[in-house]
């Protein structure tokens, strides 16, 4: 019965125009995809046991490829600059990042991940990979193939939505 109600809701007018069947199916699939990606993200984050909030992990992850200015951390972390500053202060106190004034612009701060921060990331990533590997093997799936196919599907969606995210 819920599916019948959901289908009739999808066939209603959207933005002043009736939805076509393909649009309704894509919308329904997108909602399911969003829920599924959220669940995968939560399960892997819990398995990693980083001992950090997600905002801190996002900042560490953004710094793993090299130092960045504080202002450059807002986009990859999804945080505002004041929130990034607070997160970085906590990470610095824990010895996971270092902040220094930029040589080229003394008003700016450049942040880099420390070896301890890299170790936290590496250990957590290993636990995430182990959880994923175990789960796929328990189901009898080929882990490499399953992850490669999932990654390609997500990249296809990213290319359609935000091509610059693939750089």
Helix content: 55-70%
Largest pleated sheet? 3 strands, antiparallel
What is the CA-based Rg, rounded?
20 Å
What would you call the structural class? Answer: mainly alpha
DSSP helix count? Answer: 7
The pLDDT mean sits at 87
Low-confidence runs: 1-11
Order of helices and strands: HEEHHEHHEEHH
N- to C-terminal distance: 44 Å
Beta-strand percentage range: 5-15%
**Total strand segments:** 5
Q: Which sequence of strands runs across the widest sheet? A: 3-5-4
- The general outline is globular
Question: Could you give the topology of this structure?
Answer:
Layout: H1 2-10, E1 13-14, E2 17-18, H2 21-48, H3 54-63, E3 68-69, H4 74-77, H5 81-93, E4 97-101, E5 109-113, H6 115-138, H7 143-161
Antiparallel strand pairs: 1-2, 3-5, 4-5
Give an overview in words:
- With 167 residues, the chain is mainly α.
- Helices cover 64% and strands 10% of the residues.
- It has 7 helices and 5 strands.
- It has a 3-stranded antiparallel beta sheet.
- It is globular and about 55 Å long.
């Amino acid at each position: 019965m819920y599916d019948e109600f959901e289908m009739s809701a999808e066939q209603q007018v959207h933005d002043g125009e009736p939805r076509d069947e393909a649009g309704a199916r894509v919308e329904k699939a997108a909602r399911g995809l969003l829920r599924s990606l959220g669940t995968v993200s939560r399960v892997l984050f819990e398995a990693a046991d980083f001992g950090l909030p997600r905002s801190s992990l996002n900042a560490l992850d953004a710094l793993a490829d090299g130092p960045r200015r504080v202002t450059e951390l807002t986009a990859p972390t999804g945080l505002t600059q004041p929130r990034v500053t607070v997160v970085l202060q906590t990470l610095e106190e824990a010895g996971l990042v270092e902040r220094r004034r930029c040589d080229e612009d003394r008003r700016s701060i450049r942040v880099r991940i420390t070896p301890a921060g890299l170790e936290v990331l590496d250990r957590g990533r290993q636990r995430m990979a182990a959880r994923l590997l175990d789960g796929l093997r328990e189901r009898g799936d080929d882990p490499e193939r399953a992850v490669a196919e999932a990654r390609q599907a997500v990249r296809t969606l990213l290319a359609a939505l935000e091509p610059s995210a693939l750089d």
